[in-house]
Amino acid sequence: MAAADEVLVLGGGVIGLACAQALQERGVAVRLLERGRLGGETSHGNCGTLTPSHALPLAAPGMVATALRWMLSPDAPFHVRPRLDPALWAWLLRFARRCDPAVFRAAIAPKAALLTTSQALLDDLVRRRGLDCGHRRDGLLYAYRDPALLARSIEQHALLAEHGIAIERLDADALQAAEPALKSGLAGGLLFPGDGQLRPERYCAELARIARADGAVLEERAELVDLEASARGWRFRLADGRRGEAARVLLAAGPWTARMAARLGRRWPIQPGKGYSITYSRPERPPRRPLVLKDRSVCVTTWDDGYRLGSTMEFAGYDASLNRTRLDALERGAAEYLQQPLGPEKREAWFGWRPMTWDDLPLLGAVPGAPGLWVAAGHGMMGVSMSAVSGRLIADLLTGAPPPIDPAPYRPERFGR
Question: Around 55, how many Cα atoms within 13 Å sit in the side-chain half-sphere?
């Protein structure tokens, strides 16, 4: 890298690509390095939902008791594989302390700001740049079998109205009318008309396309092995022996960001939360819009050319095996709700690690005490939903433009140095 004002982006998932695209569109020269394929890991197999509806924090009142109960079952929506891992248990303890009604309510605002602003920015980007990624804004539906769970959910989600997130309550008949693909006999549902969806693989490809069209250099199979501060900014070395320098570096490597940061003396509480999905060909009677089957925490998304079941959260470190028990739980959960739960052809069984922080918010901004070092990571399950605003925030903060929302809640210094 020759120019002193270039930005080196480390990580080619949806967040790294969104940041690279936003920076390059502003005229900031970007070089992005991805150790594998662009959008090929955490961003590849998620359900592609765009969800202001998910602005409620994961650390909800009562979640500790629920999680403890689920931990006894290897196919439950949440599972911690027993092992000696002090960092994980410290993370879980901090998370548990946040399962307090007052903390829960206060934590909605910063998450809602990211999700709603990102939705608007993504709408604009798709329109302006002609992104071909299956983008739709026709809502998302929560479906419930248990009336008690529905009642609790109605009470909690009513808080979203305070943040401009629309919600409609559906009784059993209205739910069936809204989604004929569901089985009869369900308790009811919640409709979030402002939510949407896209095909995540195509979205990442389109971000790469327009970033390159604007002049960004995006490299695949480029594994970083060394990064250190230098007189001109940051010096780096790749596995193939190439070396270079950049005035500024953006760490955007999803669940691997904490490992990169640790080499630089930073201890950020990003844990890999393992999620799963199964992709099929499109069934004959697919759902009209994305669904969350709440009692089983299974997400269902339909595209013109495919159909996906996804979700679950497993804390198993960086274990790189496909857990058949977790995959089977997705299919069983779908079978409880849907008349045609599976597509005729199974195309891919997948897992990916989500970068989870215990306060359920990403790290976005300059790293204190490290001139020229920036971070955009820790988006948990919301990387696609928060991608557009994350790119915009980083571009604005780095270039000195006014950001669209207050960046203070997402500053990395909240976790110390």
Answer: 31
Alpha helices in 241-293 (DSSP H): 257-263
3-state SS class at 250: strand
For the chain, what is the domain count? 2
Which is nearest to 78 in space by CA: 91, 94, 65? 65
**Whole-number average pLDDT of the chain:** 94
Residues 6 or more apart in contact with residue 91 via CB below 8 angstroms: 269, 271, 356, 358
Asked if residues 262 and 303 have their Cβ atoms less than 8 Å apart, the reply is no
Question: What sign does the CA torsion over 261, 264, 267, 268 have?
Answer: negative
Which residue range is the domain that position 332 belongs to?
55-101+136-195+270-357
Sign of the torsion formed by the C-alpha atoms of 349, 352, 358 and 364: negative
What pLDDT, in 10s, does the model give residues 173-221? 999 999 999 999 999 999 999 999 999 999 999 999 999 999 999 999 9
Beta-ladder partners of 191 = 141, 168
Name the domain boundary from 357, 378, 394: 357
CA distance 22 to 252: 14
Q: Residues 330, 184: one domain?
A: yes
Question: How many helices (H) does the chain have, and how many strands (E)?
Answer: 11, 20
Angstrom distance (rounded) from CA 178 to CA 87: 44
**DSSP assignment of 338-355:** BSS-S-SSEEEEEEEEEE
Taking only the tens place, the pLDDT of each residue in 324-371 is 999 999 999 999 999 999 999 999 999 999 999 999 999 999 999 999
Residues 77, 175, single domain; the answer is yes
In this structure, the number of other CB atoms found within 10 A of the CB of residue 79 comes to: 23
Instruction: Report the 10 Å Cβ neighbour count for 38.
Output: 24
Do 295 and 330 reside in the same domain of the chain? yes
The closest alpha carbon to 390, from 7, 18, 12, 13, belongs to 18
For the entire predicted model, the pTM comes to 0.96
